[in-house]
Design brief:
Blueprint lengths: L1 H57 L1 H15 L3 H36 L6 H7 L2 H17 L4 H25 L4 H40 L8 H39 L5 H42 L3 H28 L1 H8 L4 H33 L4 H21 L8 H26 L5 H30 L1 H22 L5 H5 L4 H11 L2
Helix pairs in contact: 1-2, 1-3, 1-4, 1-5, 1-6, 1-7, 1-8, 1-9, 1-10, 2-3, 2-5, 2-8, 2-9, 3-4, 3-5, 3-7, 3-8, 4-7, 5-7, 6-7, 8-9, 8-13, 9-10, 9-12, 10-12, 10-15, 11-12, 12-14, 13-14, 15-16
Length: 533
């Protein structure tokens, strides 16, 4: 049952994530074409700061809620699980209020210091989302603790719909006032989106409250946990996770002054050229790398409550089985994304940003480098979720610190070399993921005793991805002159997806039982059986 819950939850969140990213493409691609790389520099510069505060409120605490609720439910203490949620909601409201005030009132001073003062308007437009998102995250954590991923998925999709419509509309309306105001209009879409998301979560919560009320009323009675005790447990568990989640956003925030300064003072680029290069890195290529993260993050989020329950009940066989399956699914998802983005980097960028072809072609070099890091990022996210589930939440923090230190050093050194320039920041990011992934894998083996089957976890997905990459590259080359860049790229991607799926089934990289445990799994198996014997 545990594995079934994990796979179904991951599939639900993964499908929602795909929808969210497709909607995001409908946002970022026209936005990039509308405001160009300079406008994207203003827009994208605020997100490292925003993500730091977002990590503080939504990285550790929802995971803590999920884990604590799952553990109490496993012991029949549903009332205590619900009490954890109520206390955490008040905590989230307080954190959100403080985050909003700092970002809104500190925007001008910070971005003036970063040598990109025009970004302050986008930060002020985005700041109200920090008041709303934390409260929404507390509801999501409670639902996830009950191993119900549907509310999280629904709220993510609704949130993104509101964001896309509002952001693009305001960016277009405010463009006549200047790129900085267009970027601010686009950023305000996230604030409106968070409002739409929390409304959906509230509706789901109040309409499904009866479903949980009976368990809460019938739960085992005991000494009621005090507010102080619950807050203490949340802090003890959430702080390390929050620190770990904040490391990369902090590093990305540091990227802004390091990259801008080194490109100008050492590599010899002008202010305008440095802005353009940074926009290519963060606004163009960086946004595409976020796509596969959604799928692997769905696996990690679904793993935490399941791993926590198995660990609490000392079901070691089921625990190791879920961990093995989780990493394998992450690699199955991450490898094709990495290979596909590497072999079709420039065609994809030019297809997505036809009005900014020069910038898109320049960003393709960064995308190729960052795509390689997707393989290791997939592992980092999943193994971090495992370590959090077994109560070793400080371990991935330390591991990511080692990776972040390497990133800072490499970024500072390499961006000062004119021929490497902004690609140095991309190389630094990949190095951070490689280090953290390796150390996390060692830690999971040590603390859980899980032995990973090299053939199933790495070799079979790798063979499938390599064949897929060859097909994608060859198809694009053959069709480019005949059909043009866009059609050739779309056909290559579609064919690559089919080939990868076929190869996974032929190599048995995905088992029949795993397919059956997915939503509509039995129907999927029947379809597969018609083609694969």
């Amino acid at each position: 049952m545990a594995k079934k819950t994990f796979i179904q939850g991951a599939a639900i969140l993964g499908m929602a994530g795909i929808i969210v990213k497709i909607l995001g493409a409908f946002f970022r691609i026209p936005l990039g074409n509308l405001i160009g790389d300079n406008g994207m520099a203003y827009y994208q510069a605020v997100y490292p700061v925003y993500n730091i505060f977002l990590a503080i409120s939504t990285a550790g605490i929802p995971v803590a809620i999920s884990k604590m609720v799952s553990e109490r439910n496993a012991l029949g203490r549903y009332h205590d699980g619900y009490r954890v949620f109520k206390v955490s909601f008040l905590l989230m409201f307080f954190i959100g209020t403080i985050s909003f005030m700092i970002c809104f009132f500190g925007a001008e001073a910070y971005f003036t210091a970063c040598m990109i003062p025009e970004a302050k308007y986008a930060m002020m437009a985005l700041a109200p989302a920090l008041l709303i998102v934390p409260m929404m995250a507390s509801f999501r954590g409670y639902f996830q603790g009950n191993q119900n991923m549907k509310p999280t998925a629904a709220s993510q999709v609704v949130e993104q719909c509101f964001r896309v419509v509002t952001g693009l509309t305001l960016a277009f309306v405010f463009l006549k006032y200047g790129l900085e105001f267009a970027a601010a209009g686009a950023a305000f879409g996230a604030t409106v989106g968070s409002l739409g998301g929390i409304i959906i979560v509230l509706l789901i919560f109040f309409t499904s409250k009866k479903k949980y009320r009976q368990n809460i009323e019938d739960s085992k009675k005991g000494n009621e946990e005090s507010v102080g005790y619950i807050l203490g447990r949340i802090v003890v568990f959430a702080v390390p996770i929050t620190l770990g989640a904040a490391i990369m956003p902090i590093m990305n925030a540091i990227d802004v002054p390091i990259v801008m300064t080194r490109l100008q003072e050492t590599a010899g680029f002008s202010y305008s050229e440095a802005k353009s290069l940074y926009g290519q890195l963060s606004g163009f290529s960086g946004s595409l790398i976020n796509f596969p993260q959604v799928l692997t993050q769905a696996i990690a989020m679904s793993l935490v409550p399941v791993v926590a329950e198995m660990h609490k009940l000392k079901k070691n066989h089921e625990l190791r089985d879920n961990i093995h399956t989780g990493l394998r699914m992450a690699i199955v998802v991450g490898l094709p994304c990495a290979v596909g983005l590497m072999v079709l980097a420039e065609p994809i960028m030019v297809m997505l940003y036809p009005m900014q072809k020069a910038s898109a072609a320049g960003a393709a070099q960064c995308l190729t480098i960052l795509a390689f890091g997707v393989i290791f990022l997939s592992s980092v996210q999943t193994l971090t979720g495992v370590l959090q589930g077994i109560g070793r939440q400080m371990v991935p923090v330390i591991n990511m610190c080692f990776g972040a230190a390497a990133k800072i050093a490499l970024t500072y050194w390499l961006t000062g070399i004119p021929d490497i320039n902004v690609k140095g920041a991309a190389i630094g990011t990949v190095a951070a993921y490689i280090i953290a992934s390796t150390l996390n894998l060692v830690a999971v083996k040590k603390y859980t005793g899980t032995n990973f089957d090299f053939t199933m976890v790495y070799l079979k997905p790798a063979i499938s991805a390599i064949v897929m990459g060859i097909v994608a590259w060859t198809t694009h080359k053959l069709l480019f002159t005949l059909l043009g860049g866009t059609m050739a790229t779309l056909i290559a991607i579609a064919l690559a997806a089919f080939v990868y799926g076929y190869m996974l089934l032929k190599t048995r990289a995905v088992t029949r039982s795993e397919m059956e445990n997915m939503p509509k799994g039995k129907k999927i198996v029947k379809i597969v059986d018609r083609f694969i014997k």
